[in-house]
Amino acid sequence: MSQNEIKDLEKIFEEKIARDERIEPKDWMPEKYRKTHIRQISQHAHSEIVGMLPEGNWITRAPSLRRKVALLAKVQDEAGHGLYLYSACETLGISREELYEQLHTGKAKYSSIFNYPTLTWADIGAIGWLVDGAAIINQVPLCNTSFGPYARAMVRVCKEESFHQRQGYEIMLTLCNGTEEQKEMAQDALNRWWWPSLMMFGPTDEESTHTEQSMKWKLKRKTNDELRQQFIDQTVPQADILGLTIPDEDLKFNNDTGHYEFGEINWDEFWQVVKGHGMCNKERISARKNAWDNGEWVRDAAVAYAEKNSEKEIQQAI
Ligand SMILES: [Fe+2]
Ligand SMILES: [Fe+2]
Predict the structure, then answer these.
(1) Residue 75 Cα, ligand 2 centroid: separation in angstroms?
(2) Ligand with the closest atom to the CA of 84
(3) How far apart, in Å, do the first and last CA atoms of the chain sit?
(4) Neighbouring C-beta atoms of residue 108, cutoff 10 Å
């Protein structure tokens, strides 16, 4: 293709995005757009799958049958999110095997929040309330993102995330209306999950290397700092209802701006966890690798069964 032809295609592509039309897998797209989407969608898919691990730990220890059913449903939803997203990613010309390989070798990242441990039952409440709450704020704008398969997957994902957020908040509410000890457990979970939840929105706008291009492609509709502020403004009143204290001495409402001001995020900790030195990085990756290795016979059996069936179909057709 000549340079001029590429320029024409780029123009058509950019006009489509400007008109808020979707880019579909068979449409022409710049290589950088394709690569950026593979990176972001796979990172998102890996986060859903690795995110099952800290909560999966608590399925057998959930305090009642009702809690167990709800948590089981939530963790299964996360598996479903991962699968939609891997499928969306595959439409960009990368295989599932390559994507897993990237996760297992550490080449691809997943959300650092899942490298923190879940120490008590209250952590399951805090994760639903804060982590799924932050995920919704990150993901709602993606329902309008330019790449069609990603945008469509997000519509269902967001509906399920709001169930996750509410089940988490309800756990917190029950603990906070319980015994003194239960309330302390809820406060302790908030203390440990608050700051990592704020880090889920990524580095500040000044530090974020991908924001500008991603905004242009409508892969991002709001900046990291805008989304983080929205999360804080929404979540602080919810903590008040619970009667819990946000672990930030600098937190205060600014009447003029209508927003909460907040303290300094520990970006050293953020980068340490991103670089693989969080409390559970090694544990999470080895759990994923083991699941992949131990599941080999299931994949082999599924392929053998599919082959047998297609042979049968061919014979019947003859
Ligand atoms: Fe999810
Ligand atoms: Fe979720």
Answers:
(1) 8
(2) 1
(3) 44
(4) 18
The alpha carbon of 232 and the centre of ligand 2 are apart by a number of angstroms equal to: 18
Q: Is 313 part of any domain?
A: no
- Is 235 among the domain residues? yes
209 phi, psi to nearest 5 deg: -85, -25
Q: Is residue 302 part of a domain?
A: no
- 169-186 burial: b if 16+ Cβ within 10 Å, else e: bebbbebbeeeeebbebb
CA of 54 to the centre of ligand 2 (A): 12
* CATH code, domain carrying 154: 1.20.1260.10
Q: How many whole angstroms from 69 Cα to the centroid of ligand 2?
A: 15
* Ligand in nearest proximity to the CA of 128: 2
- Whole-number Å distance, alpha carbon 51 to ligand 1 midpoint, is 8
Distance 110 CA to ligand 1 centre (A): 12
Ligand nearest to the CA of 153: 1
Ligand nearest to the CA of 165: 2
Number of domains the chain is built from: 1
- Measure the CA–CA gap between 50 and 57, rounded to whole angstroms: 12
Please list the pLDDT of the chain residue by residue as tens digits (318 residues).
Answer: 788 888 999 999 999 999 999 999 999 999 999 999 999 999 999 999 999 999 998 999 999 999 999 999 999 999 999 999 999 999 999 999 999 999 999 999 999 999 999 999 999 999 999 999 999 999 999 999 999 999 999 999 999 999 999 999 999 999 999 999 999 999 999 999 999 999 999 999 888 777 777 888 887 888 999 999 999 999 999 999 999 999 999 999 999 999 999 999 999 999 999 988 899 999 999 999 999 999 999 999 999 999 999 888 888 887
Closest ligand to C-alpha of residue 130 is 2
Tokens of 260: 């909460």
Q: Determine, yes or no, domain membership for 296.
A: no
Q: Supply 28's token pair.
A: 């022409």
Domain limits for position 118: 3-278
